[in-house]
Design brief:
188 residues; 9 helices
Length: 188
């Protein structure tokens, strides 16, 4: 059997994300910031409707028929995501993200590519915002199971590709053996 190619995991640092956001036009800045804050896929962000958002409960949801994995996704909204949504309120009756009164349909535009150049970021796609969100969470101690739930991944295998980004997180588990061996070696 042929080996499957390794999936690409490309992410940027918070400093690089700041440079990118500063280089984007305002309407794209908010949509990219929302993607970084929620980890939602491009299609779920651009198609987001107000009927899918509950600002009071700080949640959004993606219905199974709109989710790549075919299951509902519950999205807990952080403060930044809520702030972005508040800025969008009143711009359109149905769609969350708009430009000049019309729903945004595409984000991989010339403005996006030019902003990447101005920010000095190469080899970066819109979907890599999702990889960035997942990478940041893993690097800061989010358990793989929680990340799987948050990101709407159907299998644990899809999430394990981020595990290598948090080797220090496993140090506390390795320390268990250290403690056991120290007791054993000092008892002799």
């Amino acid at each position: 059997m042929y080996q499957e190619p390794k999936r690409r995991v490309r992410w940027i640092t918070p400093k690089q994300a700041g440079a990118l956001l500063n280089a984007l036009p305002e309407h794209q800045r908010d949509i990219a910031l929302f993607a970084l804050a929620t980890g939602l896929r491009q299609s779920n962000v651009v198609r987001l409707r107000w009927s899918q958002v509950d600002l009071e409960r700080r949640t959004a949801w993606i219905a199974a028929d709109e989710a790549k994995g075919g299951e509902d996704i519950h999205v807990s909204l952080c403060d930044l995501a809520v702030e972005v949504l508040e800025r969008q309120r009143g711009k359109h009756a149905e769609h969350v993200f708009t430009y000049k009164g019309n729903p945004i349909r595409y984000v991989n535009t010339k403005a996006w590519r030019n902003a990447l150049k101005r920010a000095g970021i190469a080899d970066f796609r819109w979907h890599d915002l999702r990889h960035t969100w997942a990478s940041w969470l893993i690097q800061n101690g989010t358990p793989l199971y929680d990340l799987q739930e948050m990101g709407g991944w159907k299998s644990a295998a899809m999430v394990r590709r981020y595990a290598h980004l948090a080797p220090a997180h496993m140090a506390r588990h390795a320390a268990v053996v250290d403690g056991l061996l120290r007791v054993t070696s000092t008892a002799q």
